[in-house]
Amino acid sequence: MIPLDESPITRDGNALILAYDHGLEHGPSADFGSVPETLDPEQIFDIATHDAVTSLAVQKGVAETYYPSYDDSVNLLAKLNGTSNLWMGEPHSPQNWTVDYAAELGADAVGYTVYSGSNNEKDMYEDFRDVQERAHSEHDLPVVMWSYPRGQGLKNDTKESVIAYATRIALEIGADMAKVKYPGSRGSMEWAVQSGAEMPVVMSGGSKVSDYEFLSSVEAVMDAGGAGLAVGRNVWQRDEPKRILDALEQVIFEDATADEALDE
Ligand code: FBP
Known about the structure:
Layout: E1 15-19, H1 22-25, H2 28-31, H3 41-48, E2 55-58, H4 60-66, E3 76-79, H5 99-105, E4 109-114, H6 121-139, E5 143-147, H7 160-172, E6 177-181, H8 186-195, E7 201-204, H9 211-223, E8 228-231, H10 233-236, H11 241-253, H12 258-263
Parallel strand pairs: 1-2, 1-8, 2-3, 3-4, 4-5, 5-6, 6-7, 7-8
Helix pairs in contact: 7-8, 9-11
Bound molecules: 1,6-di-O-phosphono-beta-D-fructofuranose.
């Protein structure tokens, strides 16, 4: 396995993953309606060429059609599983493409959602096992886990103990990086990062908030020892995605505070 530090999906050990799987996860009306240009995957690939972005996470159909034109300017994080909002059962996320096919398309890493706590946990762990072993042993590809405890037994999926459990589960079952929801404070994030030991932990972006609120949470994550961010809506739903990426570049890779980054 190539150490994550040497993978193109990190820069100086940190990562800014641009996520664009919302068309599947939430549907176009929910997330693309407010900025209709975001319906066009090419717009997002263009945004992903910004220096701050270390990889773009997309599903198979989008990767197949658009990635070939961007393979020298964007690092592909192949999001292998995903589910629609139309599914009403216990949380589950079926695998939509294989590690082999992602590698064939030129993926630099694979991504996989695991809903620990769901009644489907057993199946998801087994699927993750196959993906992780194939990615590591056959293709030297790092595995980023969207580690989202959720299910009927979980009342609050962002509380401190749940997010720390999420990072630990990712470490225990073999992820190279965990992407978790922000637990609400720097202290709680610190505990989550510590619970993942040496495995890098990035924050999941969430729905759009003000520049300052968003950058402050990213600053708190970095201060807590986090390794960056995986973000969708808080970048591409903005009128000027480049401006927020300039600011994120400073906070994630140059140690700037939210205030400093916004002053530029
Ligand atoms: P955002 O930054 O827009 O929240 O995207 C991150 C992400 O993990 C996406 O990859 C995914 O589509 C979405 O959030 C899923 O969020 P949820 O499962 O909470 O609806």
